[in-house]
Amino acid sequence: MSDDFELDTDDLTRRMDGAMGALKTEFSSLRTGRASANMLEPVMVEAYGQRTPINQVGTVNVPDPRMVTVNVWDKSLVQAVEKAIMNSGLGINPQTNGTIVMLPIPELNEERRTELARVAAQYAEHARVAVRNVRRDGMDQIKKAKSDGLGEDDQKFWESEVQDLTDQYIKNVDGALENKQAEIMQV
């Protein structure tokens, strides 16, 4: 076994990419004072007897930096869309004009910006933990291979490969957090 051990770094990379993807999704749901269609992704509307994502009952648009609109396709669902947005915890009061639900995005105050920056830091820490868990799995595979006869030089090589990959992804998480916090704190 010692000569033919090959750590599946593609699998580790894919799993670390998954952690980064989850982080980006969580970051996109944070309201930064600028309108974004992504901020409505978690909103579920009670439609036709089941909970449906808002983008499946209407078209979400961002006509300007301080406004999001939802053009509801079925007029009977306008009230349900309004109710879902009010109950979503976004802190936005919808205004209705026929089948169009308008969401004016208010300016964020300093206290709310600081709170959002803290939430972004928590999301980043979850991503770091996920990356470290993938690292631990890789190291466990190397340890198992060592007990099956992997040489010490090969073990050191693979451990440094996994550590380099981990360091790279942790640096990416930190960079994404820095950018998001700068975006949140920007007035």
From TrEMBL:
It is found in: Cytoplasm. The keyword Protein biosynthesis applies. Gene3D superfamilies: 3.30.1360.40, Ribosome-recycling factor (1.10.132.20). Its main location: cytoplasm. Keywords: Cytoplasm, Protein biosynthesis. The keyword Membrane does not apply. InterPro entries: Ribosome_recyc_fac, Ribosome_recyc_fac_dom, RRF_sf. GO terms for biological process: cytoplasmic translational termination. Residues 23-185 form the Ribosome recycling factor domain. GO terms for cellular component: cytosol. Pfam families: RRF. CDD domains: RRF. One of its GO terms (molecular function) is ribosomal large subunit binding. NCBIfam families: frr (TIGR00496). Belongs to the RRF family. HAMAP family: RRF (MF_00040). Responsible for the release of ribosomes from messenger RNA at the termination of protein biosynthesis. May increase the efficiency of translation by recycling ribosomes from one round of translation to another. This is Ribosome-recycling factor.
